[in-house]
Amino acid sequence: MGSLEGKVAIVTGAGSGIGQATALLLGQNGAQVAMADIDLKSGEAARDELRGLSGVAMALQADVSRSGDVERMVQAVCDRWGRVDILVNNAGIADWAPALEIEEGDWDRILEVDLKGVFLCSQAAARKMVAQGEGGKIVNIASIAGMMPFETQAHYCAAKAGVISLTQVFALELAPHRINVNAVSPGVTRTNQTARLLADDIKRQEILDHIPMKRVGQPEDIAQAVLFLSSPQSDYVTGTVMVVDGGWLMV
């Protein structure tokens, strides 16, 4: 894997789970990493962990669904390190409810964070990348829920399907600027959002029965895919969706 020395990365939702694992891995591969999270304390803890591994990091508070927060986040990174080379759109939330019982407010919040947030962050970071004139990488964390239906997740499935479509549109428009835009679609991954689900023995076994590799994903599994798509090795890869699901979509 090529070094990310000299690259500046922003990872949203970096305070835990996939975002934290990704931020740490990018930092261990040489990137200067801005760890953005709506919970500043979580972001600061992740920052301190990377610094303990001799990485270079900063922590920022940002609600990705708010354009003002996003603009301030990107500008703070440029003020500190002078540029943005890599954006990982990981921040997201999930909820479970039958389609006929989803409240309008719950629908709006999922779409605001999981889809609008990806748009706002991509737009703000890409504007800087275009101005820099040296290319860049944008990696969006989608989900297999954006590629197939899951009961009780109509709003989440819709948002993640939108992320995949948005990835392709940005990839098409930004290709002339040598900005690669790709997505990673995880399967069920052990994070705070899935902890309660995986703690249920029956539910966990049902999940494992769907996975040919017979284990759920770990945040580090997803982070490795993001590292590849953030590296020089992926310079000719754009508009694609890398599925990291232990084989779920095959069955």
Strand-residue proportion: 15-25%
| CATH third-level topology | Rossmann fold
- pLDDT averaged residue by residue: 97
Total beta-strand segments = 7
Which structural class do the helices and strands define? alpha/beta
Strand order of the largest sheet: 3-2-1-4-5-6-7
Second-tier CATH architecture: 3-Layer(aba) Sandwich
**Biggest sheet record:** 7 strands, parallel
Order of helices and strands: EHEHEHEHEHEHHHE
CATH class: Alpha Beta
Radius of gyration: 17 Å
The CATH superfamily name is: NAD(P)-binding Rossmann-like Domain
Distance between the ends: 31 Å
Fraction of residues in H or I helices: 40-55%
Uncertain stretches of 5 or more adjacent residues: none
What does the overall shape look like? globular
Number of domains: 1
Q: Give the number of helices.
A: 8
